[in-house]
Design brief:
By secondary structure, this protein is mainly alpha-helical. The protein contains four helices and no strands.
């Protein structure tokens, strides 16, 4: 698992936090896609593959940030 997760060590937290905020709020002129897709998910109308892909696309930086945080916490323990 260490080999699979080493790419997260190369990405600074600042970049991931910035990308997470950017993708969560995009587009800035209308309702953010993430909010729209989450509403569709709650309504049960998130059925088109493009909408499902769009939801995961906008959540990807947040997922990577969470993985980096959790993976970093596991490494901090005593050796």
């Amino acid at each position: 698992m260490i080999n699979r997760m080493t790419f997260l060590n190369r990405i600074p937290y600042g970049i991931l936090i910035g990308l997470t905020i950017l993708m969560a709020l995009a587009p800035f002129s209308a309702e953010p896609h993430l909010l729209e897709k989450l509403k569709m998910l709650m309504d049960g109308s998130l059925t088109k593959p493009i909408d499902i892909f769009d939801l995961f696309w906008h959540l990807l930086p947040a997922i990577l940030l969470l993985l980096k945080f959790l993976y970093g916490k596991k490494q901090v323990g005593p050796s």
